[in-house]
Amino acid sequence: MKRQFLGLLARVYVLQFALEVPATVAMLADMLLQYGFQVDIGTVRPLLRTLQMEGYLESVLRDGIGRVYQLTERGREELAASRQHIDELHRRLHAELPTPDTPREA
């Protein structure tokens, strides 16, 4: 379960990074490392390939840089939806805890 959750979170991070700046595989791996993900280029490539196949990222060759990954319109929509889910989870995690005699909301 933890591995699946981290995989989903890594997807959101990669989409966010690709929104901010077109990035190479190495740049994306470094960004993920900075946020505590234990990854290397070899583990990031399959994630990028999957995100491309799903239509969320596209790659282009840039002179002097190499292949960079950037967000597609579909990727922007997916990122927006993911951010809404994360925001809702954050609100729930930081909401006041009910007392034992207070009924829970559904």
Automatic annotation (TrEMBL):
Coiled-coil regions, chain positions: none
SUPFAM superfamilies: Winged helix' DNA-binding domain
Taxonomy, superkingdom: Bacteria
InterPro entries in UniProt: Tscrpt_reg_PadR_N, WH-like_DNA-bd_sf, WH_DNA-bd_sf
Pfam annotation, one family: PadR
Residue ranges of domain Transcription regulator PadR N-terminal in the record: 20-80
Membrane spanning residue stretches: 12-37
UniProt keyword Transmembrane helix, yes or no: yes
Keywords assigned: Membrane, Transmembrane, Transmembrane helix
Identification of the protein by name: PadR family transcripitonal regulator
Organism (species): Cupriavidus oxalaticus
Taxonomic placement: Bacteria, Pseudomonadati, Pseudomonadota, Betaproteobacteria, Burkholderiales
